Amino acid sequence: MNKLIIFSAPSGSGKTTVVKHLLETMSDKLGFSVSATTRKARPGEENGREYHFLSLEDFKQRMENDEFLEHEEVYSGILYGTLWSEVRRIWAEGKIVVFDVDVKGGLNLKKQFGEQALAVFLRPPSVEILLERLTKRSTEVEHELKERIDKATEELKYEQQYDTVVVNDKLEETFDKCERLVTDFYIA
Ligand code: ADP
Ligand code: 5GP
Asked: What ranges do the domains of the chain cover?
């Protein structure tokens, strides 16, 4: 059976860190679904690796062509979307597709795929720690940071709708738990 694992979490919870680790250590089992976005690349990000960085026109054209499984305006004026082409590419390699999407997008994917998908909600030990991690990361300017904090606080309410919740306190323990989840789902 073709399978998918969805990692969702409020911004700053450590989703990118965890997904990157899993892809490095379990690359034989997992393939990352590279989303499309209209936001600008951050320093160190590469087109086609973290995201397919698209112009708004290109993104809208792809929406019209039905190229997305789901898409969303995650932050005001900034679109993100999961491409069918990514899912097909990874399944063709015989691997589980891994998604790093926002909480709404994650629930949308879970609804579409049911038992084929494992939906994992990653959350920080507390809101205070989330704010600290977001601020330390320093990738956003002030108003963007505020928008992310507001959204993160809202998203924390959705964890019970996920198949499983992992609290990201000590990173090594989080890595171990997530590796175990992947292995169990892979052999199930
Ligand atoms: P997300 O992708 O969910 O927005 P990131 O993976 O970018 O989150 O993590 C946010 C920040 O918190 C990063 O600077 C990351 O290095 C740090 N971080 C992630 N997990 C932990 C952890 N368990 N303990 C301390 N810092 C962490
Ligand atoms: P960032 O800009 O920090 O990389 O990501 C912002 C948010 O958008 C994160 O919560 C990330 O998981 C989410 N995201 C990334 N790609 C997609 C996607 O294809 N669909 C949805 N719904 N959210 C996405």
From this structure: 4-187
d(CA 90, CA 100): 15
Q: Could you tell me the end-to-end alpha-carbon distance of the chain, in angstroms, rounded to an integer?
A: 10
Cut 0.85: pTM above it: yes
- Does residue 12 have its Cβ closer than 6 Å to ligand 1? yes
Q: What CATH topology corresponds to 4-187?
A: Rossmann fold (3.40.50)
Chain segment 137-185, per-residue pLDDT in tens: 777 778 888 888 888 888 989 999 999 999 999 999 999 999 999 999 9
* CA 122 to ligand 1: nearest atom: 3
Residue among 97, 67, 91 nearest 79 (CA): 67
